[in-house]
Amino acid sequence: MTKWIASILAILVLAAPSLAQDHAAVDQAALAQEARGLAQRFAHRLRAALQEAMRREGAVGALGVCQEQAPLIAEEIAQASGWQVGRTALRLRNQANGLDAWEAAGLREFQARAAAGQPVADMFRAEVVEGAKGRNFRYLEAIPAGGACLACHGSSLAPEVRARIDELYPGDQATGFQEGDLRGAFSLSRRLP
């Protein structure tokens, strides 16, 4: 009986590293699923607010939603979930949404995948990242430019929209997009133990 117990213990000791890796993979999959749900919640709430503003005030009103309501929506989701939640892009409109090196690398990867013909709507990146702020689970989900987005992010902007963008966002780089282009990404992060 003692030999049998020793054999079982030996198997468990040998298997422990792979069991830990499998556990981490399951945790990462669960975290990615949770982050995706939060990103979709953010997208849904922002889209609804933008559609309402467009209906009431047109594209000029939608600019106010992105400037004022989007950060509030992100903060509400962050407070309720324990995640850091935001948006970023390689071509920024709001400089407060600046990106870090991990986000920049992810967005450049998304650009390359889009150039190779992959639909932007299917793109995400999720991984554990060790950094100066400790160990974090990071999630980046591409935001494709939709048809309605082009009123404020397309090539042909109404003069009043262009004037309002210039007023709200000096140094804006977020125009000239076509439908389906990579507009930016939802970026989420959660500290790990």
Task: Describe the protein's topology.
Layout: H1 2-81, E1 84-88, H2 101-115, E2 124-131, E3 134-144, H3 150-153, H4 159-168, E4 182-191
Helix pairs in contact: 1-4
Strand/helix succession: HEHEEHHE
Percentage of helical residues?
55-70%
How many strands, what sense, and barrel or not for the largest sheet? 4 strands, antiparallel
How far apart are the first and last residues' alpha carbons, in Å? 39 Å
Number of discrete helical segments:
4
Poorly predicted segments: 1-23
Average pLDDT works out at 88
Number of distinct beta strands: 4
What fraction of residues sit in β-strands?
Answer: 15-25%
Structural class: alpha+beta
Question: Whole-number radius of gyration?
Answer: 21 Å
Q: How would you describe the shape?
A: globular
Write up what this structure looks like:
The protein has 193 residues and is α+β, with helices and mostly antiparallel strands. Helix content is 56%, strand content 18%. It contains 4 helices and 4 strands. Strands 1-4-3-2 form a 4-stranded antiparallel sheet. A hairpin with a 2-residue loop joins β2 and β3. α1 packs across α4. The protein is globular, with a radius of gyration of 21 Å. The N terminus is likely disordered.
